[in-house]
Amino acid sequence: MRRGTFALALLLVGCGSSHRNTASEDTGVDDGATDGTTEAEVGDPTCPPGPYGLRVGDTVPCLTFKGYKDSIGEYTDIAIKDYWDPTGKKGNTVLVLVANAVWCIPCKNLITWMSDFYANPDVLIKGQPPYRNLGAKFVSVLIEANPPGTPSDKAALDLWVKVCKLTFDSMLGPEREVTKVDDFSFPYTFIVDTTTMRIQQTIVGFPGPYQHLAAIDAILARHGKDAGPPLDAVSDTAPEAADAADAADVVDSADGD
């Protein structure tokens, strides 16, 4: 990520889903509406209490996905409940889940920006601590491969991790659940407080980093964490237009597979 103009991000704020709000068989997981499901009804006491759903105020569904921890190593199971930290013993503070598609240019811009802020933000803002050092957990959830509407698979995830140079957890996600959110568009971000695993805010698209940082920093502040320089220091920080070519490479590579 480099300092530059928001022109590309503003023109390409979000990408629609070809399977938006489609019906599917009952999976036992709430599709966005609060259903009153409780921890006991789920049958797993290690899951955070419900009600579960994908709207602000809901608890993130207690699901397990295939993916890569820190986007390296073994392709394995990653359980959402493992981010839950009610006592603070794990050191987790905020969970940022982003639903992406390989063909979506704003998705690539957002994930690239997140990778920098997660691991090495000092290249962007002097004195900015890495978010991973503040207990933040960033997760890329790949929903669609290329072309639009194609379910993601391990090959698509491997390509996504490589091209985006991910530094945090990455996983495959269930398209039929996430895209039934009423205002869904790629990328779609869930900001979650790991103390309760309740969704604090959702963000559609990537109009620039300010909205994401403000939501993340608000939760960090509640945990007594100092996120560093004020947000106005990043008001002009965004992927350059050159990132469009990089994102196009993801699509082109997927087409060639």
Explain how this protein is built.
The protein is α/β, with parallel strands linked by helices and 257 residues long. 26% of the residues lie in helices and 17% in strands. Strand 4, helix 4 and strand 5 (169-172) form a beta-alpha-beta unit.
Q: How is this structure best summarized?
A:
The chain has a seven-stranded mixed β-sheet. Helix 3 crosses helix 7 and helix 4 packs antiparallel against helix 7.
What level of helicity do the residues show?
25-40%
N/C terminus separation: 27 Å
Q: Give the overall average pLDDT.
A: 77
- The appropriate CATH architecture is 3-Layer(aba) Sandwich
Name the CATH class: Alpha Beta
Main sheet: strands, sense, barrel? 7 strands, mixed
Strand numbers in spatial order across the main sheet:
2-1-5-4-3-6-7
Structural class: alpha/beta
Could you give me the name of the CATH homologous superfamily? Glutaredoxin
Oligomer state of the chains in this structure:
single chain
* Count of helix runs: 7
* Radius of gyration computed on alpha carbons: 17 Å
Number of domain units: 1
CATH topology: Glutaredoxin
